[in-house]
Amino acid sequence: MGAKAEKTKEKIRAAAYELFAAKGFKQVTMSDLCEQTGLSRGGLYRYYSGTGEIFSEILTEEYAVEDRIRTGERARVILDDMLRVIMQEISDREHSLSLAIYEYASLGNEALFTRITGRAKARWEALIRYGMETDGFQKVNPAQAADLILYYYQGLRMWSRVIPLGEAEAEFYVKTVRQMLLGGAPDYGAYENTI
Amino acid sequence: MGAKAEKTKEKIRAAAYELFAAKGFKQVTMSDLCEQTGLSRGGLYRYYSGTGEIFSEILTEEYAVEDRIRTGERARVILDDMLRVIMQEISDREHSLSLAIYEYASLGNEALFTRITGRAKARWEALIRYGMETDGFQKVNPAQAADLILYYYQGLRMWSRVIPLGEAEAEFYVKTVRQMLLGGAPDYGAYENTI
Got the DSSP string for A82-117? Predict the structure, then answer.
């Protein structure tokens, strides 16, 4: 596929992302996407066969962690980049895909989510192992640590559709993950003065 | 209210719980509940004015943590009891209210969820402080630790509607919370043999 086609697909995915975040999965139609992107029906279908294909492509976009490990970047730098993205996502309640994910999963796409979860886990475990081997990460159980990172994040992301979560929750998340992987005293005194 | 009325209300809430877990919030009607409980329409409305009242009562049922602290029970015992309940809930995918919570929140019940979240947080913070003062809990920031406990749990609970989660995820959760509060080496060697 040429660069122009790639660009059009990106534009479609970006428009679809907004719609899925706002309306969930089921309520978004290919017609909505024509309207949003300015593409004709024929033009849109040239790139995607339906909203399911678009959504599943959005969900499988990945951080290039393995590539960065291979090129020998420092584990702490990769970690901080990942945490920065996550922090933005948590604070950005309007763009949570959680509701759409629920709906799409309930339509029988469990295999897709099993694959996505497995890959995300493998990515985090690889980074944690790499950090332990090369960059002084704390000795943790990589699978256990990856679970905390992923499900704690999912909880924040999903719960932010239920009540507004602020910067504070995102900061605690980042702090907890960094303390777990990099160590350092939990600065409980900075927040509370109760003990 | 007499003991008999209290018992009927409990029966209604138990039946409603099953329905909300299975169908979400919006799709459950008072008629469904009559059918499920065997109560007449008039009988049901004597206790509850609608499904919203029932759902909100289910959501605000609470662990009696503060009472147990007041009577001087050991913090570790209370902690283990709470973790046992949570572990059952995580493994019991069919009974997750997550979808119903989403739907109910989207109907404009944010204030209720803000209150519930605040109370759950206060309860955990109280237990953590009590444990630090009286039962050798690790020195942590209580608010930060409570966030991990609550949102990591929410993530597991909600994600278990998307893909099946097993005992393993529940065990990692309990292990992580116990290590954070009670200390002890992360037994990474028991799971993986990679470093």
Answer: HHHHHHHHHH-GGG--HHHHHHHHHTT-HHHHHHHH
